[in-house]
Specification:
294 residues; alpha/beta; Rossmann fold; 9 helices
C-alpha cells in the first residue's frame, strides 16, 4: 500500500509533466519528406489553458534554421496553423513548403485578448522561444538561427518580439501587413475608440492608456541593435494602412537597423485581390529571407 501523501505532494504527482520535460509526441511522416509534431505544449500560464505549438521539421538531419510563425486574427481569434486566406488552399501548405525548403517551423498559440491583455501574447512568444531553446537538441533545431514571421496581428507581435531587448536576439523578422503604431489615428484605426481590436488588446482605448499604447507599438520600440527585418505590406490595405509598414521601415533605417520594405500595389489585407502567382512571389521572397538570415 502506498504511503500517505500530503495534498501538495498528491497535486504534484497527478499534474501533467512540465513542458520542459514532457515526452514529445511521435512525428507524423509527410508525403514530401517532412515531419510534423502537432499539439506540443510549450507553456502553461498560471490560470490559463496550456499553450501549444505545431512543429514542422525538414527531412534532412538538423540542426535546422527555425521559423517561429505567429498567426493573425486581430489579437482576438485565429489559429496557429493559418498563414492567411490566400494560402489556405495550397497543397502542400505553406508550412510544409517551408519545411521542404530546409526550415523547421514552430506555429505557436498565444493568449488572445479575450483571455489576457497585452503584454501576455508577447510573453507567450518569449516563452515559446525559451522552450525551443531548452528542447533544441531533441528537436533538431538551431535556436541561434530563428526568424520570427507573422501576419497581421501576428506581424505586430513578431515585430515586437524581434525588438525586445531581454529576449534572445533573433536572426530576422518577416512582418506581413502588421500594425506598427497603436498611438496615431490611421483610418480605419481611431485610438480614441474603446471597441477596436487594439483597445481590446490593451484593455482600454489606446488614447486612454498612452504608456501601454507606446509599449505595444513597434515603431516606438525600434533600436539600432534590431535584427534584419523584411516588411511587406499591401498598398491598398483597408484594414491596416500601408503607412504602418512604411513607418516601421523608416524608423528601423533611421536607427541604423537593416530592413527591406516591399509594398505591393493593389493588395488589400491578407493579400486579398492579388493573383495567385503574386502571392507565390511574396511567399518565395519571404522564404529566401528566412533561409539566408543569420
Amino acid at each position: 500500500m502506498a504511503r500517505p501523501v500530503t495534498p501538495g505532494e498528491l497535486r504534484a504527482l497527478i499534474a501533467a509533466p512540465h513542458p520542459d520535460v514532457a515526452p514529445l509526441p511521435p512525428a507524423a511522416e509527410r508525403p514530401h519528406g517532412t515531419r510534423l509534431l502537432r499539439g506540443v505544449p510549450y507553456a502553461v500560464p498560471d490560470g490559463a489553458r496550456p499553450l501549444e505549438l505545431d512543429l514542422w521539421l525538414p527531412g534532412a538531419p538538423g540542426p535546422a534554421p527555425l521559423v517561429l510563425f505567429v498567426h493573425g486574427g486581430a489579437w482576438r481569434r485565429g489559429q496557429r496553423d493559418d498563414m492567411g486566406v490566400t494560402t489556405r488552399a495550397w497543397a502542400p501548405g505553406p508550412f510544409e513548403r517551408l519545411a521542404a525548403a530546409g526550415l523547421a517551423v514552430a506555429c505557436v498559440d498565444y493568449r488572445l485578448s479575450g483571455e489576457a491583455l497585452f503584454p501576455a501574447p508577447l510573453d507567450d512568444l518569449r516563452a515559446a522561444l525559451r522552450w525551443l531553446g531548452v528542447r533544441a537538441a531533441e528537436l533538431g533545431v538551431d535556436p541561434a538561427r530563428t526568424v520570427v514571421w507573422g501576419e497581421s496581428a501576428g506581424g505586430h507581435l513578431a515585430a515586437l518580439l524581434a525588438l525586445t531587448h531581454d529576449a534572445p536576439r533573433l536572426a530576422g523578422a518577416v512582418v506581413w501587413y502588421g500594425p506598427a503604431d497603436l498611438t496615431t489615428p490611421r483610418p480605419p484605426f481611431d485610438p480614441a475608440d474603446p471597441a477596436t481590436p487594439e483597445a481590446l488588446l490593451l484593455g482600454a482605448a489606446p488614447r486612454d492608456v498612452p504608456e501601454a499604447a507606446v509599449a505595444a507599438s513597434p515603431v516606438h520600440r525600434v533600436h539600432g541593435g534590431a535584427p534584419p527585418f523584411l516588411v511587406v505590406h499591401g498598398e491598398a490595405d483597408t484594414m491596416v494602412a500601408c503607412s504602418h509598414g512604411r513607418d516601421l521601415a523608416r524608423a528601423l533605417r533611421e536607427a541604423g537597423a537593416p530592413v527591406e520594405l516591399h509594398t505591393v500595389a493593389g493588395a488589400d489585407h491578407g493579400w486579398y485581390g492579388l493573383a495567385p502567382d503574386e502571392v507565390e512571389r511574396i511567399f518565395a521572397r519571404s522564404v529566401a529571407f528566412a533561409t539566408t538570415a543569420k
